[in-house]
Amino acid sequence: MTLRYEELRLDSEKKQGDIAQILSVKRNTYSKWENLINDMPLEKCNELANYYKTSLDYVLGLSNVKVVVEPPLFIDWNTISKRLYELRSASKLTEKELSCKIGFAQTTYSQYETGTRRPTTMKLLSIAQYHNVSVDYIVGRINNKTIIKK
């Protein structure tokens, strides 16, 4: 699994500064996201997926299928909390057990489920990988849990 920030940018013949401008951030900020120095906020990753007209799963390397997504899709923060709870419950795990398995503090994970804290892109990716479900599903962009694979 490899994040596709740089690949998508190069395929679109853009410079880091161009994408930074599209995302309304400084070039240095985008550069740190692309080079995995910092974790891109989920809202910005969603903007990036919408800019490239594809799924979050593709941008984040969960899927190798570059589906065309139009019109732009949005994150539903209430759906994230609900779906995280449903996925954990279906796995018959407590918050503490799941937190240990994915390497988060229990309080952090609990805040994601209650909606008092927003998950970062990489944290959400870890959760999706653990449950083998689509990031697009967790954030409410789609209603199908399945990751489209080749």
Descriptive overview:
With about 150 residues, this protein is an all-alpha fold. The protein has 2 domains: about 5-60, lambda repressor-like DNA-binding domains (434 Repressor (Amino-terminal Domain), Orthogonal Bundle), CATH 1.10.260.40; about 75-140, 434 Repressor (Amino-terminal Domain), CATH 1.10.260.40. The chain has 10 helices and no strands. It has helices at about 5-10, 15-20, 25-35, 40-50, 55-60, 75-90, 95-100, 105-115, 120-130, 135-140. The longest helix has 14 residues, at about 75-90. The two termini are about 15 Å apart.
Q: Brief overview, please?
A:
With 150 residues, this protein is mostly helical.
What topology does this entry show?
Blueprint: H1 5-11, H2 16-22, H3 27-34, H4 42-51, H5 56-59, H6 77-90, H7 95-102, H8 106-114, H9 121-131, H10 135-138
Helix pairs in contact: 2-3, 7-8
CATH superfamily of the largest domain: lambda repressor-like DNA-binding domains
CATH architecture of the largest domain: Orthogonal Bundle
Order of helices and strands: HHHHHHHHHH
Helix content: 40-55%
What is the residue-mean pLDDT, rounded to a whole number? Answer: 95
Compute the separation of the termini in Å.
14 Å
Radius of gyration: 15 Å
The biggest beta sheet reads: none
Structural class: mainly alpha
The domain tally reads 2
